[in-house]
Write a structure and sequence with these properties.
This protein has three helices and six strands; from the N terminus they run βββαβαββα. With about 140 residues, the chain is α+β, with helices and mostly antiparallel strands. The protein has a single domain, classed as 60s Ribosomal Protein L30, Chain: A, CATH 3.30.1330. The protein is globular. InterPro entries: RidA (IPR006056), RidA_CS (IPR019897), RutC-like_sf (IPR035959), YjgF/YER057c/UK114 (IPR006175). GO terms for molecular function: deaminase activity. Belongs to the RutC family. This is RidA family protein.
């Protein structure tokens, strides 16, 4: 019998650290909840392309993938994506990069226009929920 009520906080140096009182991700059972990721380069801790939605989307998805990989998942294990955009006119550029990175098996998704994000140079933030192999499956 497996303990499903255990909550594990996930942290990796290959994605930007949490910028406040939250975890990069939290695992509960076979689900991983990845906090909203900004387009911050984990090596420089800066947003390298302040006005380029395509470059920011790629960086955000790289950050998300790093967290998923650290937890034992991948972009292919994502069930739900929520995208926050400060400029809805960037929707097509974000979609183009999203499709390139995620391939053809898309998860469920929402896209929300917001007035601002926590970093003034960020135009996109993405959070995901993913499924992970159970600890029993990993141990086998």
């Amino acid at each position: 019998m497996r303990a499903t009520n255990i909550i594990s906080r996930i942290a990796t140096d290959t994605a930007p650290p949490a910028a406040g009182p939250y975890a990069q991700a939290v695992r509960h059972g076979d689900l991983l909840y990845v906090s909203g990721q900004l387009p911050i380069n984990p090596l420089t801790l800066r947003i390298e392309s302040p006005t380029d939605a395509s470059a920011q989307t790629r960086q955000v998805l790289d950050n998300v993938a790093s967290i998923l990989n650290h937890a034992g998942g991948s972009l292919q294990s994502v069930l739900k994506v929520t995208i926050f955009l400060t400029r809805i006119e960037d929707f097509a550029d974000v979609n183009r990069i999203y499709e390139q990175v995620l391939g053809e098996d898309f998860p469920a998704r929402s896209c929300i226009a917001v007035s601002a994000l926590p970093h003034p140079d960020a135009v996109v933030e993405i959070e995901v929920t993913a499924t992970l192999p159970s600890p029993v499956e990993v141990a086998l």
